[in-house]
Amino acid sequence: MDHLWQDTRYALRTIVQQPTFATAVILTLALGIGANTAIFSVCNAVLFRPLPYPQPDRLVMVWERMSRDGKLTPVAPANFVAWREENRSFERLAAVNPLVDLTLTGRGDSERIVAAAASADFFPLLGTQMAIGRGFLADEDRAGHDHVAIISDAFWRRHFGTSHAVLGEPLTLNDTSYAVVGVLPRAFQFVAKASDFQGRNQFHIWVPLGLNPQRLQRGTHPLRVLGQLKQGVTLNQAQADLDVIGKNLELAYPATNRDRGIEAVPLTEQIVSNVRTALLTLLVAVGLVLLIACVNVANLMLSRATSREKEMAVRLALGATRVRLVQQFVTESTLLALLGGLGSVGVAWGCLAALIRYVPLDIPRAGAISLDLTALAFSAAVSVITGLLFGCVPLMHRVSANESLRRSSHTVTGGHTRTRNALVVGQVAFACVLLIGAGLMGRSLWQLLRVSPGFRTEHILTGELALSSSRYRDVRHIAALQRDLLARVQGLPGVRSAAIAAYLPLGGTDNSWSPMFEGRPPLPPGEYIKYRPVTPSYFDILAIPVHEGRRFEETDREDAPAVVIINEAAARNYWANSDPVGQRLQIDGPPWRTVVGVVGNVRHEGLDAEWKPELYLPYAQLPYPNRVMTLVVRTVGDPMSLTAAVRNAVSETDSGLPLYRIETLEQVVDASVGEPRFRAMLLGAFAIVALILAAIGLYGVMSYLVSQRTREFGIRAAVGATSQDLMGLVLGRSLTLVFVGLAFGLLTAAALQRFVRSLLFDIAPYDVLTFSVVPVLLVSVALIASYLPARRAASIDPINALRSE
Fold it and tell me: Which of 258, 291, 318 is the last residue of a domain?
């Protein structure tokens, strides 16, 4: 301990005496460790941290599986009830319907509430105890007995001011009174992948699922099912049990269950399935940045070791042991690394603050991303490990005391030089891998952004509406409201036109039917066509072209002949050899609907999605009410400037009708590419940092080379070498190191591309442009970094160089 205290004091004095060296090491490590800590915090929150439920390894999501293509789909209510009654593997099965739209009235302004309906077993399955009150009772999970509600902690605080007298308080939801029976704890999280719930996985009000035994449906599939395995039951055993149930249902109900299986997926795997590869790729990338930073620090330590070689020799000559020297150098390097680790906390905090602003909505548990104790422990561990490793760098090459004392201070140490060269080669290789990864991600994002969505996005404002079922009981009432509302909005200054659609392109929600085509057999089980209820001016506002026939007209009302418009993909799939206009089809039974037009394809599910068959229906001719809709307004100028005017128009039409989620269509499209943009942005930032660090490392090695070979360059100049010869000598050495590093980097990048293939859009993993530009960029940066040392070598005065020796 006495030695440790002496070494610590000596290390502190050294840091004070050599502030430039110490600052360079500390800042380099702070940057590398801080970036790693930030990305580790994201991965820890999303991937590594267990789900916040008791025994999360027993939780699964259960889906219907289409035998035709293996696609997993939500569950029909009747199938869920059959699973729950017939399975022998699950302690509990619970269902959630996320497509519940509630409008709160009677507590100030009307407010649309993000809500979900859950079966009585849902909260017990997650092990959730109410902060106040109770969960749902089994008897409340039936239609007619389901007018109770459980509210979130945030809703409780906002509307009831944390009053514990909240139990039994009435909530008017969709003009129906619900009694509050429970308040969720503040820490409750429903962790789920947003896309599995059509972008809605954070709910403020929960109501009972209320399944009606007499009206259980098999044709609609709104439910997301979670299961808790019995103790000792494996996933394979549960899957075998579900396979038997699926076969039985297929035999009993062939019209709806043919070619439909059942599949259980571990809840953790389901949640992170779409982000695991991307986040692990980022973690590897930022790890390479840390390696490059460490290589720079190693180079700095080698330079310092060269300058202290005589000091070590003197101490050895005076009787110091090599173990004692190792202890001192390890103490010094560990102290520097710990100081870098302290700095990395600030870097990580700043990186996380910036990252959280750009985290895509579909990354689960994004709200839990923070610089917690685990992340700080990670930062401390990396700091200590790097300190211990760097402490041994000065003694990597054992040199005797006599040899060190005899050697000139300007003599090249061969071992150190080879080590520094190897470190630079590694830096170039790591930077090459990162640059190629960033180039591929950037090119992929560029290709994605160039994709035409099939509709206009400029100068369009959107806002969602949710109608009360008690006031808008049928399609006729809804159509009357729409005509009144559109007339008011279109009369506003600055508005060109307005329309209403049920499912906005790239909005994350949709619905589908299995239509019957006249004169043809029914579609195979599991084959559905997306449908889009719209008002007549919708196609004009979004500039969706009409290729055949006509658009919808104002005369296509409730009492007019039923009509439908199809997209090009539907025309190609179902009427490839005939004219679709004039053909007829049925949706959910009579009447027959006549195809009156064919419009262009629109990318509703994502810019990277393929064109799919779609049907457009006039809102006034829907077979049943659709009370969730999106107002689409085309404006003359800035769409957001009309927000207040449009909101007032909605209020004048119906004072109890809230307008929410107001955004421009450009923002909707922009949000749809959030995840690839996030990846490309981070990889690009890491690649730039890696390139700068590699350039600094190369500059340091070339400067060291020139300083150590001053006498040699002086002799060369004295015997006739020109400035160009000396400059070429240094640049040639630099390019040799770079080309060797490039060779390793290109081979490594090529080997790793198969792991990122799934993250790329319309770009080959071995993209020729990326693999060509990156080497040119690295060589160019290497020449720039080596130019100053090369020019210094070219300007050496041979007389002064030889005199100094």
Answer: 258
